[in-house]
TrEMBL record:
InterPro entries: Apaf_helical, NB-ARC, P-loop_NTPase. It holds the Pfam family NB-ARC. The chain crosses the membrane at residues 40-61. Residues 28-196 form the NB-ARC domain. The keyword Transmembrane applies. Keywords: Membrane, Plant defense, Transmembrane, Transmembrane helix. This is NB-ARC domain-containing protein.
């Protein structure tokens, strides 16, 4: 069985994203300033689940400089199934705000797509790509190369192999890392103490909170999940109990931690 990831969308509140200012600046530079021999340049963002790849992309996607720089901006959630026909239909839908006729053949869809994007400077986000088959990627890429100079495609993926397939120039692959200790604590504190059940100045809660935070590895989704759980626990004993018993069950292996938290 494969679990389908919850579908992403193109909106994110900037004030809810902590610790990604440097990554945003680096991505903006690649999107707005980097030069390429190809009209359409592909920027992969790679990192394991929960690091906030989509959130970072949306910071840039919704930036006013970016909006004014491109004639078209499009966002498509790809996820587990890399179906070229479906992706093309969803790109068209992102441009027109209307789904194309489901009875259209691939040839008709590709003509619609090229009619919408060819000759325009566009930004396309392809979020959460898992496909590691170069041939499949090549089929899609051929349909997207008609944009004018300065067009960009941002790809988010958990797989370094996907990143290398989409862009062989490693210097233009943005590898996302966990949050710094200070940023991780800011995020944790913002959520864990938001219910006002516990006092963020109480040294006992702060000490236990920081011990718990060490287990989160700087991963924003893990921090949010655990901090949200703690925000409903009112006593020191409950926080200690969570640290000693529930937290001990969580594996710190990158691929396992999110699955464990889901359970």
């Amino acid at each position: 069985m494969t679990k389908k990831r919850q579908e992403t969308h193109s909106f994110e509140r900037e004030d809810e994203i902590i610790g990604r200012d440097d990554d945003k600046a680096a991505l903006l530079k690649l999107v707005l300033e980097s030069q390429s021999e190809e009209n359409v340049y592909i920027i992969p963002i790679v990192g394991f689940g929960g690091l906030g790849k989509t959130a970072l992309v949306l910071l840039v996607y919704n930036d006013e400089m970016v909006k004014s720089h491109f004639e078209l901006t499009m966002f498509v959630c790809v996820s587990n199934v890399f179906d070229v026909k479906l992706i093309v239909a969803n790109i068209i839908k992102s441009v027109t705000n209307q789904a194309p006729d489901q009875n259209l053949e691939m040839d008709q869809l590709q003509k619609q797509l090229r009619d919408k994007i060819d000759g325009k400077k566009y930004l396309l986000i392809l979020d959460d790509i898992w496909n590691e088959d170069p041939e499949q990627w090549s089929r899609l890429k051929k349909l997207l190369m008609g944009g004018t100079n300065g067009s960009r495609i941002i790809v988010t993926t958990r797989s370094l192999k996907v990143a290398k397939i989409t862009n062989k120039c490693e210097s233009h692959v943005l590898k996302l890392k966990g949050l710094s200790d200070d940023d991780a604590w800011s995020l944790f504190k913002k959520i864990a103490f938001e219910q006002r059940y516990v006092d963020s100045t109480n040294s006992t809660f702060v000490e236990v909170g920081k011990q718990i935070l060490k287990r989160c590895g700087g991963v924003p989704l893990v921090i949010k999940t655990i901090a949200s759980t703690l925000s409903l626990k009112e006593t020191e004993n409950e926080w200690h109990s969570f640290k000693e018993y529930e937290l001990a069950k969580i594996s710190q292996i990158e691929g396992d931690i999110l699955h464990t938290l889901e359970l």
